[in-house]
Amino acid sequence: MKKFIIFIFIAVSAFKIYSQELNISQYVFYRDGMNPGSFIQDNDINVFVLYNNEFSGFRHEPRTQIADVSFNVKGHKLGVSVINDNIGFDIAQNVKIRYARQFALSEKSFFSFGLSAGGMHNRFESTKMTFENEGDPLSFTDYTYTRLDFDFGAEIQFENLFMGLSVTHLGKQAVNPENDSPISHYYAYAQYAINSKNSFRFFPNVLMRYWKNTYWAEASVIAFYKNLAWLGIVYTRNHDLSFTTGVRVTKKVMFGYGFKSNMNSQILRSWGTNSHEIFLNFAINKEVGGIKTPRLVD
Known about the structure:
By secondary structure, the protein is mostly beta strands. The chain has one helix spanning 2-19, and strands at 45-53, 63-73, 76-87, 90-104, 110-124, 143-157, 161-168, 185-192, 194-195, 200-211, 214-225, 229-236, 240-250, 253-262, 275-284. The chain has a 14-stranded antiparallel β-barrel.
C-alpha cells in the first residue's frame, strides 16, 4: 500500500505540471498554444488539429489532442481551442477563447498582444485503477477539480525575425481555490528566417520556458524547400532529440509529422522512449494578400 501511495503522489504531481502545459515537438506551427498574442498565420480562417503520443509502447502513455479554429480580420484575431490531455488515469480538458490585436510599427515590422480565457477540468480516475488491497478507500472516489485559466502574451515581428513573451495558466480553482492553484509557465522564444540563393529557406528557433524554479530550453532549425516541404531537428535541455518533416499538400493544406526520443541513458534507454506527433493545418482565404512576416504558415 505504501508503494501505491507513493505512486499516486508522483502521478498527481506529474499530472499537475505536465497535463496543464503543452508538450509538443512542432510548436513552431502552433505558437497560439503558448502565446495568445501570436500571429503565426494571416489566413482569414485557420483550422489546426494535432495528435501527440508520448512514450509510445508504454502502458497508459501520455496522449494529447488539439483542435483550434481562428479568424483574422484586419489585424484582429479571434480563436477557440480545445485541448485534451491523457496521462494514464489522469485526464485534463482545456477549452479557451482568445483575442489578439496586431499593430503596424512600420511597413515590415509589427507588434501584437493577446489574451485567452477559459477553463480547465482535471480528473484522476482512481476508481479505474487496480489497488493492492481490495476495498481501499482511495478506490471509491475520483479526484476532480475545475479552474479558470488565463494566458497573456505579446510578439514583435520584423522582416526576418520575430520574438515573443508570454505567461500561461493565470487562474484559480472554481471550487476550493486555496487548495490547488495552477502553475504559471513563462515563455520566451525567437525565430529567424534565412533566405539562401537556392530553393531552401532556413528557420532557426530558440525557446525557453520557466515554471516553479525549473526551466526548459530547446533549439531547433527547420529547412523549407520551395515552400512545399520541410525537414527539422530539435534538441532540448533534457536531451530530447526530435525530427520533424512535412509537406504542403495543397496551397492551403499542410501536413506535419514529428518523432522524438530521449538521449539520456541515465533515465531510460536511448531510442527507447519514442514519441510520435502529427498535425494538419487548413487555411481559407477570402481574398489574396495580407501581412507577410517570417512565419511558417502563410
